[in-house]
Amino acid sequence: MIVENQSNIKVHFAGAEQTDFAYCISKGGNINYYLFSVFYFINKVLGLKNSGFRKGIPIYKELEYFNSKHSIMDSGLFTLMFGAHAGKRTEFEIDTWFNALTEFVLKEDIKSTCVEVDCQKILGVEKAWDLRIKMKEILPNNRIINVFHKEDGKKGLDRLIEFSDYIAISVPELRAIGQKKYTYNLAHYIKNKKPSIDIHLLGCTEIQLLKDLNFCPSADSTTWQQLNRYGSIKGYSIKNIKQQKINEKYQSIVIDMCKRYDIEITQRKIDYYSRYCFTSDYYKKLYTKEAGNQD
């Protein structure tokens, strides 16, 4: 369990490294579970820029203010390898990233659960094991999520189950290789082999999976961002939402947020951030209805 007396899966709202976003989901949607990436806090070690990142007050210093019940710090490795800053990465670069991540956790006294540096896809399974064991030794006070990838294979999965007390299944990865249904079977296999283990559904936005696998204590999703990012969510689009009504409900929250993080207050920003408040509230209600209590 990730919280006391937990009986169902808790969906962590991802993208919380941007504290303006985190403020909206906290105060607008009354969200209690967060996932933030360490990427923007350590990427300078590889000479990368903080593109698009709003500094504000760092999320890891705001979690208590947001009444967080559980938070997960992602390693940022996907962004580094395949995302906005994708590129061929050497073992030296991955080791540099690992060192920066663990030093950051210790220096900033991060209490969050930490996702490991799962580098199987570029440096192989044994290198991932080397870093996995080191991370457990360096960060004994943090729970660590170890991530299963297809490169690990059946033997690697069994070894990982034996080693770990918190394991992640990469739902988007299985979907991409045409193994969508395998997530269900994999979760049951892991839990049956080690009933005490916790399972995280990485990047899980599918309601049916959240319902079927509610014995997993955690999942994460960026779906709440889709209205602003892509123009629509199920049942709503920017063209048909009642923006004025949304603003009336959330404008005071947005204005307080802008003042807190020294963001210029404009009508455009009130509209933009109010939609994030609206969608976080919408998705919390949806997850509560379909997957159980999110408090």
Any key phrases for this structure?
295 residues; two-stranded antiparallel ribbon; 10 strands; 48% helix
Oligomer: single chain
**Major sheet: arrangement of strands:** 1-2-3-4-5-6-7-8
Total number of β-strand segments? 10
> How would you spell out the order of helices and strands?
EHEHHEHHEHHEHEHHEHEHEEHH
Tell me the helix content. 40-55%
Q: How far from one another are the termini?
A: 14 Å
CA radius of gyration: 19 Å
3D shape:
globular
Query: What is the count of DSSP helices, taking H or I runs of 4+ residues?
Result: 14
Outline the low-pLDDT stretches. Answer: none
User: Overall pLDDT, averaged?
Assistant: 92
Q: Strand content of the residues, in percent?
A: 5-15%
Biggest pleated sheet: 8 strands, parallel, barrel
Structural class of the helices, strands and pairings?
A: alpha/beta
Could you explain how this protein is built, in words?
The structure is a single chain. This protein is an alpha/beta fold and 295 residues long. It is 48% helix and 14% strand. It is built from 14 helices and ten strands.
